[in-house]
Amino acid sequence: MTIKNLRQSDPIVVRVETPLNEAIQILAERHISGLPVVDDVGKLVGIISETDLMWQETGVTPPAYIMFLDSVIYLKNPATYERDLHKALGQTVGEVMSKNPIAISPDKTLSQAATIMHDRSVHRLPVLDDTDQVIGILTRGDIIRAMAASQD
Hints:
Layout: H1 3-6, E1 8-9, E2 14-15, H2 20-30, E3 34-38, E4 44-49, H3 50-58, E5 65-68, E6 71-74, H4 78-89, H5 93-96, E7 98-99, H6 110-120, E8 124-128, E9 134-139, H7 140-151
Helix pairs in contact: 3-4
């Protein structure tokens, strides 16, 4: 079975400049956990998920460091802190989204999609056509439902 047969068609997408509160409303009202993010020409540029939004509520803890001979030695990468802080303070989808999303083409199989999701620990895969336009989305739930249907 190919992804073309399983994907949810006409997925809801948001743009990079979409206000964050609008994306939060969409997620809450539609009872979904993530949305593909597209640029001005409709190409996939990111994913906004519940995980990305958690920074808005939890805040960010500065990285631990030690002082040694008038030098600061960070015990964790300060760039990670800056990225997380940016997400916590973000006001648009583009500021908070996860970049470089993993996607799949509609001609791949259910098994290939399940392997990608498992190996990369992702909950959803945008389905892209030959021009990188989002034509659907495949979730873990879609795969489980297909597995259940094949057992009947």
